[in-house]
Amino acid sequence: MTSLSSKQQADLLEELDKLKRKAGLGFELEVQWIPGKVKYSKEGKELRGEVLGNKIFVYDSNFDVAKQTLKHEFVEYFINQAIDPYRRALVSSISFFEDRAYNQREKIVKALVKLLSLD
């Protein structure tokens, strides 16, 4: 991993503070810059940054690129906040229908087994 100067870390924190002030949002967010860290998404794509909880992690080694990644993750945080209730509702609905389908399938299987058992 690349060494991190305290000035660069402070500059990235200042960049986040600017974003918060301009947007009037995100005052709960923090940033941690870990230059050179290699992390992959579930799909196997290398991540340049991510938001976990209220912390933005930035993995880019180049400071200018890291600032762009910070902006990207900042915006993505709010988009995810907006769509999360819909995602949770959809997951809940899918789970409900999967349970219903499983129960119906089991009834059919039992009925067919009974039919096959008739002599």
Number of domains in the coordinates? 1
- Low-confidence stretches at least 5 residues in length (pLDDT < 50)? none
Q: What about the largest sheet? A: 3 strands, mixed
**CATH topology annotation:** Zincin-like
Tell how many strands the DSSP assignment holds: 3
Radius of gyration: 24 Å
Query: On the 0-100 scale, what is the average pLDDT?
Result: 91
SSE pattern: HEEEH
| Percent helix | 55-70%
Terminal Cα span: 73 Å
Describe this structure in words.
This protein has helices at residues 6-23, 63-117; strands spanning 30-33, 49-52, 55-58. The protein is mostly helical and 119 residues long. It has a single domain, classed as Zincin-like. Strands 1-3-2 form a three-stranded mixed beta sheet. A hairpin with a 2-residue loop joins β2 (49-52) and β3. α1 crosses α2 (63-117). The longest helix has 55 residues, at 63-117. The protein is elongated, with a radius of gyration of 24 Å. 14% of the residues are buried. The model has no long low-confidence stretch (mean pLDDT 91).
Task: Summarize this structure as a short list of keywords or feature phrases.
119 residues, mainly alpha, Zincin-like, three-stranded mixed beta sheet, 2 helices, elongated
